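Checklist before submission:
- one chain only
- standard amino acids only
- sequence pasted in full

Submission:
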Amino acid sequence: MSRKNVLAPTLLVVALAMVAGACGSAAANPPATQPPAPTTPPPTTTPPPTTIPVDRSSSGFIGLALEEAQQRAEEQSRPWRVIHQDGADLVVTDEYTADRLNFTVEDGMVVEALTDAEMVANPPTTDCTDPVAEVERLLDTDVARVVGAYDVNDDGRDEVFVVVDDRATTNEIGLWTQGEDCSLERVTIEGSPAILTVGLTESIAAGVICQPQYDHDLYAIELASGDGVYYEGRTTGFNLEGSRLVEQWGEGAGHAEDVASYSVLACGSVSYP
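Returned file contents:
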């Protein structure tokens, strides 16, 4: 047998083995497949609005004539009222309606518009720096006189001292205080207006002292004498709680000298006579 005949079957076997190996490899590692392409939903369309949106902000009323602002509020079914007109505060009720409009009107035009909710969230600020002018406006200045203002209880708001009758030898001192909204109230003692005496005669020595170095907000000194030389009585310490002078301390006192130095009003920078 020749060499050629011997190699031929061998080559055939090798070729078959290679084909079989190739087929096995293809079966073990199938070709990779891509994930399915995402489907795009058909575009949607939003129908146009059938009504025009309503501006319900309060600022949209500013600059309108009052009649026009009223008409617009009624079209929106919103309650409204005028609270300030031409520099004057109008009398209004204090119930709360969140969406109600409050108009400030000058010369027939709305210059400010706020809802009840906006007014509660942003209360108006008031200048409390000059209560003296307001007290003077309330007083009968033919008799009474404002002496000055001093923050008795260190709450950031001044109290106003008033001489009730400036013609008397011994003078009665009244006191006004400011609330948190800067409104003025008469200071009271046990429910009655506080009247504190200042002055010196042969029978009476009285004074009012309030200075930051002392324990209490205000001290009232009331002394009496039978001979015009020796005076005795009581010194009472008060704290100012809101618009009330509340007694905190009291002690008997007697003086034969320097009585005049106790018979004055001395509260901070406020003094009388």
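Reviewer check: Residues 74 and 93 are 20 Å apart (CA to CA).
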